[in-house]
Amino acid sequence: MPALEPSLYILTLTGLGLLIALVAWLPLALKRLPLSLPIICIALGAGLFSLPQVGLRPLPFSYPEITERFTEFVVIIALMGAGLKIDRVFHVRRWAVTWRLLAITMPLSIAAIALLGVWAGLPWLVALLLGASLAPTDPVLAADVQVGPPKTGEEDEVRFGLTSEAGLNDGLAFPFVHLAIVLALSSQTGEPWLAEWLTYNLAWKLAAGVLGGWVIGRLFGWLTFRVPSESKLARTGDGLIAIAATFVSYGATEMLHGYGFLAVFVTALTLRHSHRQHDFHREMHDVTEQVERLAMMVLLLLFGGALVSGLLRPLTLVDVGLAIAVLLVVRPAAGLIGMIGLKADRGEKLTLAFFGIRGVGSIYYVAYALNHAAFPDAERLWAIVGLIILLSILIHGLTVTPIMRKLDRSQGRDPDAPERPDEEPPPVLADAPPAGQTRET
Fold this sequence. Notes:
Elements: H1 8-29, H2 37-50, H3 64-85, H4 96-119, H5 124-134, H6 157-189, H7 194-226, H8 240-255, H9 260-273, H10 280-308, H11 317-338, H12 346-354, H13 360-372, H14 378-410
């Protein structure tokens, strides 16, 4: 009689099947509960990696290259999904809340977190890296406070502001991560750094990111919607086109030494703008969301494993105080300062200020910086970032459902109303097809 003990391959296959089933079912099961998918994933990961049969200890500093590349992949997929969801046409005034969060809230957050890091005893270069890594709102873990799928009309000012902020601030935080890197390298070599940082890391990389993303978005928009009807990509009905656009945009821009994160989000916005009313946007968004959710769950399982493997061991009481201050003082205060003068009610401003969710992007930035320069107290830095991400997932995950439901009710929306996918959505703000033009299928 053959042995009944299953092989590692069979166990992995079974576990992957269960994970995919959870990806599909958990969001529905948690919809009305004060829990979030990331909380469940971390708990599952902590339980799995606590088993004595599991010998892997997925600490990020033990696998620095894998950590950087995997988080990079998850972020770019999330950025494409975020851009495709936005119904609002790009316009300086209509995006006023976004510019406030980027130009006021994020720099204030970087400075405040860096000062808190110095106060906590971190070397000033590490404190700067900490501020740059933790200032951006995460596009991966903020799904519960983002706008709904394309053309569903689920786009109030709060959801739009948090979605657009998460899409753009990942690229705009990168110059400050590079500032920490060039300062660390300059401290070792004595070479001047300011001119290179201003011209290359700031001006060139930002410009190349925006331009590269726009060009790739225009190209894929033309191939998807504008070429002769027999060969346009939209006729395939295959939403994997969005994944292709993500990889091409990111890869091409990185080869030009631009900011790929910024390029992917710009590509998504440009692709969406190429034919705003086409139903194929929903197909692309759905595939992107499924890939993102699966990758996110795997990453959070590993994060839960890192927590029980000693990631937080270097923490001190001062570090715990720092983490709480970042989430409950720095982001809310910087957010409210950024909202001064914005035409929004008090509840909307408080929600925008509070939900500065920290997550996968912060892990990527720390991994990227540590892979490109030597920083002291690296394990303590990982511990602080890990604690802040954990607390953010818990605090925001437990409060997002009641807060967003209360916000919906205050604005006259019924959060308990059943979804009616066959109902014609409200018109988009602009860019409707000209009179006499029929919608393409």
